[in-house]
Amino acid sequence: MTALPKRNLDKSNAQFQRALKRLPLGVSSTFRYWGDDRTIYVHHGKGGRTWDIDGNNYVDYRLGYGPAILGYADDRVDAAASKGMEVGGVFALSTERELIVADRISRMVPAAELVRFSNSGTEAVMAALRLARAYTGREQYLLVEGGYHGLFDAAMWMSNMDEWDLGSNQDPELVPYGKGIPPTVKQLAHITPMNNYERLEDMFKKHGDKLAAMLIEPIQGNCCSIMAEVEYVRLARELCTKYGVMLIIDEVKSGFRVGKSGIQGLMGVTPDITTFAKAVANGYPISVVAGREEVMRHFRYGGASHGGTYTAHSVSLAAAEETLRILDETDALETIANYGESLKAGISKILDARNIVHSYTGHPSMFGLFFAETPPNNYRAWKTSDYSFYDTMAHYLHDLNIIVEPDSREPWFICEAHGKDPSCLTDTLNAVERAVDLVL
Ligand code: PMP
Question: For 75-329, CATH number?
Answer without folding.
Answer: 3.40.640.10
